[in-house]
Each structure stands twice: as structure tokens, then as C-alpha cells.
Amino acid sequence: MSSHRPAHDAAGTTTPPPPLRHHGAEDDTRYIRMTVKLTAMIGGPFFLLTVILHPARDGHDIAAGAQWYAFTHSMEAISLLIQAVCLAGVVALVMNRFGPRGLTTLYTALTGTMLWFGLIVFDGGHNPVTARYAPDLVHTSKDIDIEGGIIVLAANIVFPLGYVLLALLLNRHGQRWTGLLLGFGGVVYAIGGTASLFGFGPHSMTTSVIEITGAAPYALGYVLLGRAFGQARQLSA
């Protein structure tokens, strides 16, 4: 076992030991970039898959397949958590580059993603129970209470707002198509997930069509986001 001890030169002056080797800032950034790229490549496509696999929304069909309904919503919630990790990594990478307004935008998108995570968890747990006892109430305005209404309203405001702001931010920093896909996809998906559902009713296939129409570019936007922020040359540009 060796240790660094002060050395003495001919004049008796003490020479400090050499500094210990440690990973530099570039090494730390590399791990964050890897995390951003990996979570974007998983979170975006996985989210699209769960939206495609979403079962029928009317109460009787949910009651007949309650376990599958809960499972798909659990998987969608996991995909949103993965996306949240991706956005948190982006925040860490651009902390000193995008300024206060840019960070506010990223935190808004991150908050909206977590609120939508809460909405999906609430949906996947609440509706199978309601469908078992009162299937005609599922996905109707009669089934919205104060607690559920707060989650639904907050998610439907902050989620699309966050991704629209993110689209504008990315456009200013040279990521036009990435921002456009995320902003457009996030807004269309949110419209399909709530406004279209209550507007056309749980029996209509319009909701599924709108959701998938939004989820597809949204997922692609995440893939491009991971590619952009997962490369060192993009960060140093």
C-alpha cells in the first residue's frame, strides 16, 4: 500500500504531493449524454407502443378486460417516467447554456410529463374499478370528482404547454424538427386523450386515431432529442 508523502528538495522546501486522479467534467457529461440518449430511445417508442395497444374505453369493455387495461396504463406510465429521466438529463446538460428562460421551459415540460404520468396512473386504477360497478359512468363527465378533476385539468394544461414551449426553445437552438415533432405530437395526443374522449364519447374510435396521430411524431421527437443531446459535438456547438 503506497501513499503520497511530501518531498523535500535540496533547500529543504516541502513539495506538495501530486493531486489524486479523478474523472473530469467531460467524463461526467458523457454518462449524462448516454443516459439521455438511452432513455429517449426507449421512452419515446415504448410510449407509442402503449398508445397503440390501448384497449377499448367504454365501461363494459374495460370491465371485461380490467387486467389488460390496468397493464397497458402501467406500461404507459413507465414510459412517461423514462421520458422524465431523459428531460432531467437534458436539464443537467444545458444548465449553464440555455439561461433561466430555457431552464424554466425544460422544467415546465418535465412537470407536464409527470402530471400526465399521474393522470395515466389515476386512469388505469380508477376506471377498472368504476367499470365493475357502474360501467355506464366510465369516461363521462358524471364520473369526474374534485380530486380526479384537479389531476386531469392540471395535466391537460401543463403537458401540452410544456411541449409547445420546448418546441420553441429547441427551434431557437437549431433543433427545429425535434421541437416541431414534440410540440405538435404532445398537443395532438393531449387533445385525443381528454377533449376528444369526452367530446366523442368512449365508444368512438376517433379518440384512438387522434392519440396515435399525436403519439407517433411525439415518439419520433424523443428519438431525435436523444440523438441530438447524446452527442458531444452537439453540446459543444
From TrEMBL:
Region annotated Disordered, chain positions: 1-25
Keywords assigned: Membrane, Transmembrane, Transmembrane helix
Transmembrane segments: 38-57, 77-95, 102-122, 150-170, 177-200, 206-225
Name the UniProt record assigns to this protein: Uncharacterized protein
